[in-house]
Amino acid sequence: MAKYFDVHPENPQRRTITNVAESIRSGALVAYPTDSCYALGCQLGSRDGIDRIRSIRNLDDRHHFTLVCQNFSQLGQFVQIDNDVFRAIKAATPGSYTFILPATKEVPRQLLHPKKKTVGVRIPDHTVTQALLAELGEPLLSSTLLLPDEEEPLTQGWEIKERLDHVVDVVLDSGDCGTEPTTVIDFSGGELEVVRRGAGDVSRFE
C-alpha cells in the first residue's frame, strides 16, 4: 500500500516534505503534484524506478524522461546549453515547460534517448514541488502521470492513491493541479521545435 500525505499547497508541512524526500532516497516511487498535473518521480539513478514508471505508463525506450530541477544552476549540470538557448530557457523558467537538450555525462545512460543522447529538463513553478526538490538536493527523475489508453492525466490525489495503491510507494497530495501537461520544446536539433503544446505559453518561442 502507498503512503498518503496531504499537504497545504502554499505552505507544505516541513516534516511531510522531509519524509517524502527520505522515501525517495530509499528508492520509493512517488506520485507528486507539479504546476502542470501530477507526475511520477524517483531518484535520479534508480533503475528500478525507471522500470516501474515504464511499466505503469507502458512506455518504450524512446520516451524522454524528465529531470525536474529546483533551479537553473542545477539544470545546467545535466544538459548542454549555448548562449541563445540559455537566454530563452532562463526567461521561461520556472514554468510549465519541458526542454529537450543534449545531455551531459552527469545523466545516467538509461535516461537518455537511445539515438539522440538527449534528456528532458524542467523547473516547475509549484510551491510543493520546489519544497521537495530543495529537501532532496537533486533533480527528480519524472514522467507525467498519464496512464495507458487514457486521454488526461490523473489530477486528484485520492484517486491516484486508489488506482495506483499497489504500484507506487508514496502519494503526495496538495490538491488539484490541472490536467494540462507541460509544453515541450526541443532545442537539441539546432532548430527550435515545439514537440507538444501544453500549459506553457508557446508564443514566447515562436
UniProtKB/TrEMBL annotation:
Q: Does the keyword Nucleotidyltransferase apply?
A: yes
| Gene Ontology molecular functions | L-threonylcarbamoyladenylate synthase
What is the protein's name according to its record? L-threonylcarbamoyladenylate synthase
Might you give the EC number(s) for this enzyme? Answer: 2.7.7.87
Q: Name the InterPro entries on file.
A: DHBP_synth_RibB-like_a/b_dom (IPR017945), Sua5-like_dom (IPR006070), SUA5_domain (IPR052532)
- Looking at the record, the residues that make up the YrdC-like domain are 14-200
Q: Which UniProt keywords apply?
A: Nucleotidyltransferase, Transferase
Origin superkingdom: Bacteria
Species per Swiss-Prot/TrEMBL record: Streptomyces silvae
